Amino acid sequence: MGDIKRGKALLNHEALKNSEVKGSIDYYNNLFSKEQKEGEDERKKNYDKLVISFYDLVTTFYEFAWGECFHFGVRFKGESFEASLARHEMYLAYRMGLQKGQLTLDLGCGVGGPARCIARFTEAKIVGVTISPYQIERAKILTMRARLEHLCSWTQADFLNLPIQDETFEAAYQIEASVHAPSRLEMYKEAFRVLKPGSYFGGYEWLMTEKYDRENPVHKSVKSRIERGNAIPALLEHPKEALQALKEAGFEIVEHKDVAHENDSETPWYLPLSAGWSLSGIKHTRIGRYLTNRFLYLLETFKPVTC
């Protein structure tokens, strides 16, 4: 059912107009066309436009290819992709001790998939924040369909400059969203500001490991391609950078670990990106990409969808 549900995302009618697509693509590509240091500085300076243009372009395709939860997750043998993401989200809520009615902030909420899952699991009241106006509209629609308006609400805002009073929330989390911030420290400081004293801030981070070597051309190429493919101004080059930023923002580190190796060997975290002859894997094969392109062309031609 997950693949059928994701396929329906292509038929939504809130996507970018054709006239807007080229401009967004050109702007995005320009931010990654400059020399490394100059390009990184430019992306950090214009991170808001970078992220908005990216998600205007890819959100519908993410829903089609990935679902409503735009993140990776630990996965075990015999577990479906959707189940692994839901467990990943619920585990975070469990470790944070989220409770019924607890006012909780989701920083970088996307279209709200994780917030809806956590709200159902804990009955906490989740306020999701994303800089993307398009994602806000999708989050509202999907939340209405899920009948969770009483637990989930949405605010379009920059998580480096939240329109929220000090000490408002009882908990906050982010799931692979902080990579879009030009400064982890500034994001963490803003999260700290809006949390009540003693509250938990949890999340899953995307960063290079201690094995990364900035002098290694292969490592540098991998990092650069991840940044370009995901609207990331600059990936942190070591886990200790994130930990130090959290401490400088005022947080006390209670627990941290690398979850990339916790999955079973048959189901690595990158399995959903692997090509294969299955409903989930065929989209990543050469023929799958070709068929998706042709299918979208037909949809645009006969007007049931605008891409």
Structural account:
- The protein has 307 residues and is of the alpha/beta class.
- The chain is 47% helix and 11% strand.
- Strands 3-2-1-4-5 form a five-stranded parallel β-sheet.
- The model has no long low-confidence stretch (mean pLDDT 88).
Low-confidence spans: pLDDT under 50, at least 5 residues?
none
Structural class: alpha/beta
Percent helix, as a range, is 40-55%
Ends apart, CA distance between termini: 24 Å
- Strand portion: 5-15%
Q: How many individual helices?
A: 11
Strand arrangement, major sheet = 3-2-1-4-5
What is the radius of gyration?
19 Å
Number of strands: 5
Order of helices and strands: HHHHHEHEHEEHEHHH
Calculate the mean pLDDT score and round it. Answer: 88
Sum up the overall morphology in one term.
globular
Q: How would you sum up the major sheet?
A: 5 strands, parallel
